[in-house]
Design goal:
- By secondary structure, this protein is α/β, with parallel strands linked by helices.
- It has helices at 11-15, 97-107, 133-148, 165-176, 191-197, 207-230, 249-253, 258-270, 285-288, 315-324, 343-346, 348-365, and strands spanning 4-5, 52-60, 63-71, 81-87, 111-115, 153-163, 180-186, 241-242, 280-281, 304-309, 331-336.
- Strands 1-2-3-5-4-6-7-10-11 form a nine-stranded mixed sheet, with helices on both faces. The protein has a two-stranded antiparallel ribbon with strand order 8-9.
- Strand 10 (304-309), helix 10 (315-324) and strand 11 form a beta-alpha-beta unit.
- Helix 3 (133-148) packs across helix 4.
- It is globular and about 55 Å long.
Length: 366
């Protein structure tokens, strides 16, 4: 397997792309970090004897995937280390919360990897911001492929951690990928259920209407593509997007759920990164709305830890998945007292609580 160093994005270029400051405890301005990491305590340079970060690029189904590998302090390529794959949230990128958890777990002695999903972030794929479950699940298998060939990784001790949407996709990947010895989620988000039913099942009455909109989007893209082919342009049709909004502070404050209010604050302001976006192709809904993270979840027979905030309005998704995961005889649902969904991404005391629980879990199961 060939390992290639990724090129760090220059801060001067990024500064022109996004102006939102990271003015909150628990955040770091990506423009001031050579690896464009957004979280507090992020690595700013690689030093001997400390946790180091290694930007890498690898191929997955013909696409270049952009990833970061974190190696523990005093990493020795001649030794054997357990490794953990970390899957990022919907709309997120590897430089945000996935990077924070990957770095913190590397501090506990694990080799970790987190990658931008195909068609998202700094990874290849067109059109941009496709969000289809099959692709996201394949991304997790691909991270496992890559890290299994990384120097010093013990392939018999491979763990999986999924955060938010990455948690739902991690459950799906682990149903069949038995290379993962144990699986954990933080603030799991069932993307299929939410796109189908609405958040907190608030859009049940409009499922068919939204499916027709997604179908119309695909039809328009196909029609535009045929027309362009007739005039010998080698391009596809116009891509329509959902979730592509630029809200004011007042509009954000009036959103009905903590996840959305705090999510906009996290992704657009305090932990903003130019590769991170809420938008996704409208026709992704054709795949998302017929999918559910809990389908065949009983196939997971590995140890399972699901972590969520006690005040998270997304907690119902973790509780539902946990109850249906009947195939695992070693499972635990751990709630972080007082935490909302987004607060598990960055609030130090809540992150510390999650990391402590994850460390104990992986030490026992890997």
């Amino acid at each position: 397997m060939k390992f290639m160093k990724g090129t760090a994005i220059q801060a001067t270029v990024l500064a022109a792309m996004l102006s939102a400051p990271a003015g909150e405890a628990g955040a770091e301005d990506y423009r001031k970090n050579p690896f464009t990491l957004t979280y507090a305590g992020a690595i700013t340079k690689n030093e001997p004897g400390k946790v180091n970060i290694h930007p890498v690029t690898y191929k997955l189904n013909g696409l270049d995937i952009s990833a970061n590998v974190y190696t523990p302090a005093n990493y020795d390529p001649k030794k054997n280390y357990a490794a953990i794959v970390v899957a990022h949230p919907n709309g997120g990128v590897k430089e945000q919360v996935a990077g924070l958890y990957a770095q913190r777990l590397a501090e506990k002695g694990y080799i970790t990897v987190t990658a931008d999903a195909s068609y998202q972030g700094a990874s290849d794929g067109h059109p941009r911001n496709v969000d289809k479950p099959a692709y996201r699940i394949e991304d997790i298998h691909g991270m496992a492929d890559f890290i299994s060939g990384y120097p010093a990784v013990d392939v018999a001790r491979l763990g999986l951690l999924g955060i938010c949407g990455g948690g739902g996709y991690s459950l799906a990947a682990a149903k069949t990928d038995k290379r993962f010895r144990s699986i954990a989620t933080v603030s799991m988000f069932n993307s299929g259920r939410v796109r189908r039913n609405g958040y907190v099942d608030s859009q049940l009455a409009t499922i068919q209407q939204r499916l027709r909109q997604a179908s119309a989007a695909r039809a328009q893209e196909a029609s535009d593509g045929r027309m362009r082919a007739d005039i010998h342009e080698v391009t596809g049709g116009k891509i329509l997007y959902a979730g592509d909004a630029n809200l004011t502070d007042e509009q954000i404050a009036n959103l009905p759920f903590d996840l959305y209010r705090q999510g906009y604050h996290y992704y657009w302001k305090t932990h903003a990164h130019p590769n991170s976006t809420f938008k996704y192709t409208m026709n992704s809904l054709l795949d998302l709305m017929r999918w559910d993270a809990t389908d065949q979840i009983e196939l997971i027979d590995q140890p399972l830890l699901m972590i969520a905030g006690s005040k998270a309005d997304s907690l119902y998704m973790t509780e539902d998945a946990f109850a249906k995961a009947t195939g695992s005889k070693d499972k635990e649902l751990f709630t972080i007292d007082g935490a909302t969904h987004i607060e598990t991404y960055w609030v130090p005391k809540y992150v510390d609580s999650a990391i402590d629980k994850l460390t104990t879990f992986y030490a026992r199961t890997l």
